[in-house]
From TrEMBL:
Phylogenetic classification of the source organism: Bacteria, Pseudomonadati, Bacteroidota, Sphingobacteriia, Sphingobacteriales
DUF5606 domain location: 3-50
Pfam families hit by this protein: DUF5606, DUF6852
Protein name, per record: Uncharacterized protein
Every DUF6852 domain range: 53-118
InterPro entries with a match to the protein in the record: BVU_3817-like_C_sf (IPR049281), BVU_3817_N_sf (IPR049282), DUF5606 (IPR041218), DUF6852 (IPR049280)
Species assigned in the record: Mucilaginibacter pineti
């Protein structure tokens, strides 16, 4: 799941994709159908990257990405307007180690609404780019190693950049 560049902005509903960065903040685009653009000043707004968000757990904190992965395989996802008991039982299915006292119904509703926004996007099914190289390195067959060494043994010839000639002013006598 590739959630790089997806953020939640305090005081703004929904999720946003970071498009660009300027001196004072970020240019964001909403993930909903309107594709609203927003310029966020870092001195006045708080941004939270979804890839970094965790949920309070009994022993250790639970990554939001892990909860989303469990939600993919869940049989049915309750509506965000469901009562607290339904949300709590669902959350025990997808995050059994979450702390009941610290995770409120509003937090569960927010996670479910974020999941509803993200589940149809192509980035939701993409592999995480930070973990992909590790998985590829472990899955690489041994037979491919000599081929890579042969390619590395070939010399690489690069041209040196040409120096520009300086114009020198000469005095005529």
């Amino acid at each position: 799941m590739n959630l790089q560049g997806i953020v939640a902005v305090s005081g703004k509903p929904g999720l946003w994709r970071a498009l660009a960065q300027n001196k004072t903040g970020y240019v964001l685009e909403s993930l909903d159908a309107q594709k609203t653009k927003l310029i966020v000043n870092l001195s006045t707004a708080k941004l939270a990257a979804l890839s970094e968000i965790t949920i309070f757990g009994v022993d250790d904190d639970i990554k939001l990405i892990d909860v989303f992965e469990e939600m993919k395989s869940a049989a049915s996802i309750p509506d965000t307007k469901a009562d607290g008991k339904k949300l709590r039982t669902f959350f025990f299915e997808v995050a059994p180690d979450h702390d009941e006292e610290k995770v409120y119904a509003s937090d569960m509703k927010k996670v479910i609404s974020w999941y509803q926004l993200l589940k149809d996007l192509p980035l939701f099914n993409e592999p995480d780019p930070t973990q992909a190289p590790v998985a590829e390195a472990e899955a690489a067959p041994v037979a491919e190693a000599p081929v890579a060494e042969e390619k590395a043994a070939e010399p690489i010839v690069a041209e040196a950049p040409k120096a520009k000639a300086k114009k020198v002013a000469t005095k005529k006598a």
